[in-house]
Amino acid sequence: MLAFKISGYLFLICLLFLFRFSSSVNYLYRICPNTTTYSPNSTYRSNLNQLFLALSSNATRDNGFYSYTVGRGPPDRIEGLFLCRGDVTPDVCEECVRNATTDILQRCPKEKEAVIWYDECMLRYSNISIFSRSEQNIRLIMRNTQNITGQPDRFRTVLAATLNELATEAANNLPGKKFATRQANFTAFQTLYTLAQCTPDLSSGQCNTCLQDCISNFP
Q: Which PROSITE patterns does this chain map to (predicted)?
């Protein structure tokens, strides 16, 4: 299960999902509102190409996060960033980011702001400020259609306790990566795996608020 929330005119993302490893890039979803668009031969598109080059060139950073700005001012200034899942290798992160810079142009060919998600990474750009600010209005929730069979009350209790501990750990992680994983025994034979992550440009308070908001959506 994944819960995403884009924050502010900054970008705030939090991820809460069942923890699993993957060696390939798996597309999940994209959002690209068409309220503001650009033409193919515009300065904005040229700046976008520069942004993607900068993001791709920094996709092997240890913390799996990078932000960059192109252009001096409106209407052609662009802010962009990527965030790779905290457990993926630099090679997987690089593959995901490079794929995203191509894929997002196909899925959002003319919009001045867009965000695209994969299992392994997220990439976003916008013509408005998106760094270190919060937005409450855009969220994406994806979930498995299977239900817990047996002991649903115990599952909710274990899940709530685990996620609350997880959010605290992720929000207060060392600078550079706001990421944490936790597991708990649901039964003697079933283990609950969880993961939480915020973009590192957020404060601990912003990260914790976002994750707690995501947790409240699980029921």
A: GNK2
Q: At 136, is the pLDDT very low, low, confident or very high (cuts 50, 70, 90)? A: low
> How far apart are the C-alpha atoms of 208 and 198, rounded to whole Å?
9
Backbone angles phi, psi at 101, to 5 degrees: -65, -25
Domain co-membership, 133 together with 82 = yes
Enumerate residues 6+ apart whose C-beta is below 8 A from 22: 88, 92, 119, 120
In this predicted model, what pLDDT tens digit does every residue of 36-95 receive, in sequence order? 999 999 999 999 999 999 999 999 999 999 999 999 889 999 999 999 999 999 999 999
Same domain? For 52 and 86 the reply is: yes
201: left (phi over 0), alpha (psi -120 to 50) or beta: alpha
The answer to whether the CB of 99 falls within 8 A of the CB of 91 is: no
Amino acid found at 28: L
Residue 193 domain boundaries: 143-217
Same domain? For 150 and 129 the reply is no
